[in-house]
Amino acid sequence: MVRMIERYRSRTRFLHWTNLCAFMLLLLTGMVLFVPPLWGVAAQGSWTRLFHRVGAVVFIAGPLIFAVVNWRATLESVKEAFNWGPDDIGWLKAAPRYYFLNDERAMPPQEHMNTGQKMWWLIVLFTGVVFGVSGGLMWIGKTTLPSGVLQWSVFAHDVAYIVVLPMFFVHIYLSVLHPLMTGVWRSMLADGKVPAEYVKSHHARWYARISGKQAESE
After folding, report:
1. Whole-prediction pTM value?
2. Which residues pair with 195 in a beta bridge?
3. Which of 26, 38, 138, 164 qualifies as a cystine partner to 42, CB 3.0-4.6 A?
């Protein structure tokens, strides 16, 4: 029987899928602004603007509520994203062979988050703040703020969109399609668990740490 290890709790999975739905709504409605042929059709009656704002409320409120209810886990994940060391440099050096040639030999042991996940998490954090602040200014201060402030808000919003979009597709590819990650998507889709062998191979430091804690409790 394959031993399974819990990687994502139910609240984390719920937040992940809620924010994914909100992000996709924001992505599609925001894309209207980047595709001129869609301006006349999709933007009629300001429906895209309404949907965009609904998505924005969910996208911002979801993580904030989660952070309040699960403040300890949130703090730990944020700290981990900013905690970089020699193993992360080694990961960056080994990543091309790892992802393009499926060669795991040079990959240093990783914690609960590997270096790539830390990078994605940092992008999510920073662009999330930029989206929230710039979008809020454009929404609430559209008729009251100076035009210069609104222009910079639009610029910051667009830059964050351009930064997060390609990384989002990389995240999808690595989570669902890459041969070394086969089955990982199931952990977020189903019960939050991954095989122990996968954890030992891809997150050796985390595996050693949780195995040590289990041994102490026995």
Report:
1. 0.86
2. 4
3. 38
Token couple for 60 = 């911002």
**Are 150 and 142 spatial neighbours (Cβ–Cβ below 8 Å)?**
yes
DSSP class of 107? P
d(CA 163, CA 125) in angstroms, rounded, equals 12
DSSP state of 183: T
Determine contact, residues 94/107, Cβ cutoff 8 Å.
yes
Instruction: Find where tokens 């869609």 sit.
Output: 38
Domains of the chain: 86-182 (1.20.950.20)
Calpha distance 191→204 (Å, rounded): 21
Q: Which phi and psi angles does 64 have, rounded to 5°?
A: -65, -45
What are the tens digits of pLDDT across the range 8-34? 899 999 999 999 999 999 988 888 766
Contact yes or no for 27/165 (Cβ under 8 A): yes
Beta strands in 31-88 (DSSP E): none
